[in-house]
Design goal:
- This protein has a single domain, classed as Peptide Deformylase.
- It is 26% helix and 34% strand.
- It contains three helices and five strands.
- The protein has helices at residues 21-36, 123-136, 147-159, and strands spanning 41-43, 53-59, 65-88, 96-110, 116-122.
- A five-stranded antiparallel β-sheet has the order 1-2-3-4-5, with helices on both faces.
- Bound molecules: zinc ion.
- Residues 89-91, 131, 135 line the site of zinc ion (ZN).
């Protein structure tokens, strides 16, 4: 798992242009990594692959399960009220902060076999979709924080056992 401070997490990922067995294997690896880490979503750059792919297995606020993956996702709608709710990330283990996200999000893209897919989410799942799209643009949830919440989260990350030494 790539952690905060790794350059691959801070740069936009490239569109997928080749659909084949390698892409299917990448998606399988991502599911396995997400489950092993007990996450609800994972972006490809979190395992060091700078391609626009994410996977998810995430409940919404009504406890409905959403499971799938999106290749070349586009966040086509993000609306509804802004909700500040607890959010964490497998790339910042143990760090959580109240992060503002839209209550509804729609993502369009394709599957690993190139079939068009449209994913609509509300509540916690909408949060997940926005979080994963951010990853592929090189952003982390801490980039959505301001003021004291941001300073606290970044300080906790600097002091975390997994933190990288700053030069
Ligand atoms: Zn994350």
């Amino acid at each position: 798992m790539r952690l905060l401070g790794d350059p691959v997490l801070g740069a936009p990922c490239a569109e997928v242009t080749e659909f084949g067995v390698e892409l299917i294997r990448l998606v399988e690896d991502m599911y396995a990594t997400m489950y092993a880490a007990h996450g609800v979503g994972l972006a490809a750059n979190q395992i060091g692959v700078a391609r626009r792919v994410f996977v998810y297995d995430c409940p919404d606020d009504e406890d409905r399960r959403h499971l799938g993956h999106v290749v070349n996702p586009r966040l086509v709608e993000a609306d509804g009220v802004l909700v500040r709710g607890p959010e964490g990330c497998l790339s910042l283990p143990g760090i959580e902060a109240g992060t503002p996200r839209h209550d509804r999000a729609v993502v369009e893209g394709v599957t690993a076999t190139g079939e068009p897919v449209r994913v609509e989410g509300t509540g916690f799942f909408a949060r997940c979709l926005q979080h994963e799209c951010d990853h592929l643009d090189g952003a982390l949830f801490t980039d959505r924080l301001t003021g004291l919440r941001r300073r606290r989260a970044l300080r906790a990350a600097r002091r975390a056992p997994w933190a990288r030494d700053e030069a």
